[in-house]
Design brief:
It comes from Natranaeroarchaeum sulfidigenes. By secondary structure, this protein is α/β, with parallel strands linked by helices. The chain contains 10 helices and 8 strands. 49% of the residues lie in helices and 15% in strands. Helix 2 packs parallel to helix 3 and helix 6 packs parallel to helix 7. Bound molecules: flavin-adenine dinucleotide (FAD).
C-alpha cells in the first residue's frame, strides 16, 4: 500500500485506485492523464506487460466514459529494447485507443530518444489525430521540431524539460529556458488553431498562454502534475481546460523521490509527515 505521504503525488498502486482518483478530479471539472509508472525496460516482457496494462486501462476509461487519457513513456514500451519494437507497441496502443475514443500522450525522455520518439509519433498523429507529443524547451533543437510538427493533428505539450542534457545541445540557465518556453508557446499559438498543451506549473507561463489565447483564439489546455499547485488546478478549471497528470503503479518510489527533491517545500512537507508518523 502507498504510504499516505506518497498519496499526494501518486494516484495509487492499482488501476482501480487510479480510476477512483480520476472520478474524483472529474467532479472538479479536471481531466486526468494516467501514467503507469515504469521506464527504461531492457526486456521485451516488461515492455509488453506495460503495453497490455495500457490496453486494459483504455478499456476501463472507455467503459466508464471518464474524462481521462493516458501518457506513455517510450522507454516503458520498448525504446531501449529496439526502436521498431517501441513503434509497434505505440501503434498498437494508439490504434486501440482510437477505437475507444481515448487520447494517448507520448512523454519525451532525454535527448538520445528525441528522433525516434518524433519519428514514431508523427505518422500516427497524421493518421489518427488522437495522439499528442511532449516537446522540451531546454533543448536547442526543439524550435525546429516544433516547426516540423506544428501542423500535425492531435496535440503538442510544451514543457521546460526535466532531463539534465549536455551543454552543447541544451539551454541550462533557467532564464534562457523560460525565454525559450515563452517563444515556443508564442509560435505554437500563432500557428495552431487547437491542440496546444501548456505543461507547466509556472504562473507566468500560464498567464502568457492566456494572453496568447486571447490574441490568437487558439484552443489550449493547462496540464499540471498531481500534487503540485492543486488548488490552482481547481481554480483554473473554472475558466480553462485543465488536465492533471497522475502517475500510478507499484514503481512509485523513484517518482515520489524526484517530486520531493525538486522543491524545498516538498522535502520539508515529507520530513514533517515522516516525523509526525514516527
Ligand atoms: P518551474 O520552472 O520548475 O517553476 C516555475 C514556477 O512554477 C515556480 O517559481 C513556482 O511559482 C511554480 N511551481 C513549480 N513547481 C511548483 C511546485 N512543486 N509547487 C508550487 N509551485 C510550483 N518533462 C519532460 O522532460 N518530459 C515530459 O514528458 C514531461 N511531461 C510533463 C507533463 C506535465 C503535465 C508536466 C506538468 C510536466 C512535465 N514535464 C515533462 C516536466 C517539465 O519538463 C518540468 O520539469 C516541470 O514541469 C517543472 O517546470 P515548471 O514549468 O512546472 O516550473
Amino acid at each position: 500500500m502507498l504510504p499516505p505521504i506518497a498519496n499526494n503525488f501518486v494516484a495509487g498502486e492499482t488501476p482501480a485506485e487510479a480510476l477512483a482518483h480520476t472520478r474524483e478530479y472529474n467532479e472538479h471539472g479536471i481531466g486526468v492523464i494516467l501514467n503507469l509508472l515504469g521506464e527504461h525496460y531492457d526486456a521485451r516482457a516488461e515492455a509488453a506487460a506495460d503495453r497490455d496494462a495500457y490496453l486494459q486501462l483504455i478499456e476501463d476509461i472507455a467503459a466508464e466514459d471518464l474524462q481521462a487519457c493516458i501518457s506513455v513513456k517510450p522507454s516503458q514500451i520498448g525504446l531501449d529494447v529496439d526502436p521498431e519494437y517501441f513503434e509497434t507497441n505505440l501503434t498498437a496502443i494508439v490504434e486501440h485507443a482510437t477505437l475507444r475514443d481515448v487520447f494517448v500522450w507520448v512523454d519525451m525522455e532525454d535527448h538520445t530518444t528525441t528522433d525516434t520518439t518524433i519519428d514514431a509519433f508523427e505518422p500516427l498523429a497524421r493518421e489518427h489525430g488522437t495522439v499528442g507529443l511532449c516537446l522540451q524547451a531546454n533543448l536547442q533543437r526543439t524550435r525546429e521540431d516544433l516547426e516540423r510538427l506544428v501542423d500535425v493533428p492531435g496535440k503538442l505539450r510544451l514543457v521546460k524539460g526535466a532531463y539534465d542534457e549536455p551543454a552543447d545541445i541544451s539551454y541550462s540557465r533557467k532564464e534562457r529556458v523560460n525565454a525559450e518556453y515563452r517563444e515556443l508557446l508564442r509560435y505554437a499559438f500563432e500557428h495552431r488553431e487547437s491542440g496546444v498543451a501548456v505543461g507547466s506549473h509556472d504562473p507566468a507561463m500560464i498567464e502568457h498562454a492566456q494572453e496568447l489565447h486571447e490574441r490568437h483564439g487558439t484552443d489550449f489546455e493547462i496540464q499540471m502534475l498531481m500534487g503540485v499547485r492543486e488548488s490552482a488546478q481547481i481554480d483554473l478549471a473554472e475558466d480553462c481546460t485543465v488536465w492533471q497528470y497522475a502517475p500510478y503503479g507499484d514503481r512509485w518510489l523513484s517518482y515520489f523521490y524526484r517530486r520531493v527533491m525538486e522543491r524545498k517545500e516538498n522535502a520539508l512537507f515529507a520530513a514533517r509527515a515522516v516525523l509526525g508518523r514516527s
